[in-house]
User: Fold these one by one.
Assistant:
Number 1:
Amino acid sequence: MIEHTSLVRVRYAEADQMKYAHHSNYIIWFELARIELMRSVGISYADLEQKGYLLPVLEVHVTYLRPARFDDRLKILARLPKKPGAKFRIEYEVRNEEEKIICSGYSSHGFISADYKATRPPRSFMQALEPYF
């Protein structure tokens, strides 16, 4: 299993009139955490794309438990619980400064080639993850 925590602060532009973080921002924060999770084990999304691999989102799910507010500092835990194949799932938890879980969710991804056909992950991707599984 791989885990990585990313930190964000809710910006004014991310809040609605009630000063709550808009629900759409959580998916953006999931993406930030997913990219940093991969980077933490030496995998760069940009490098994968340059090599002709794309990782579209196949599914995303979010459960909102309590609101995040403007200027809150949040911790986004991203977790890759199982060794990936052509498809994989990343789980997320968003916690506030009091360490309360305010949101949880997951996203599922699949590898495709530059010509948009399903493909296996590159060997370099699998080798980078091998020590963790």
Number 2:
Amino acid sequence: MNNKIPPPILALICGLSIYFSRPLFSEKIYVYNNIISISFFFFGTAFLVLAVLSFKKQKTTISPLHPEKASVLVISNVFKYSRNPMYLGMLFILISLSIRYNIIGGIIAISIFIFLITKFQIKPEEVQMEKLFGEKYAQYKKRTRMWI
């Protein structure tokens, strides 16, 4: 794997950068910020929890650093809609933080998160999944989007 930083740690770093970069950008407060932010946080948390429960139900690894240890290709539940619902959940939580605290800094941090997760986590994971599950993964990849 090319990634040396576990995805939850990368999401945490990006989230902290959204919060602590607030003084660098003008504040934009809108009437519905909190409602929208809470909605994204709820959906992000739901995606994360449902993805983890799907892995647990199939009795396969959830470790993003060792995809070669996967014993089952999970394609049910939230995996019907996204090949990477845990990363999507993290993304929704970062969007939530951006809406609540720092839209401009959030756009920058989210762009970095998407780039790094795609290049150093998702792409290498897909190579491993193709090796492990062959045509079954290729078919899944054709019908399910990488993010959403």
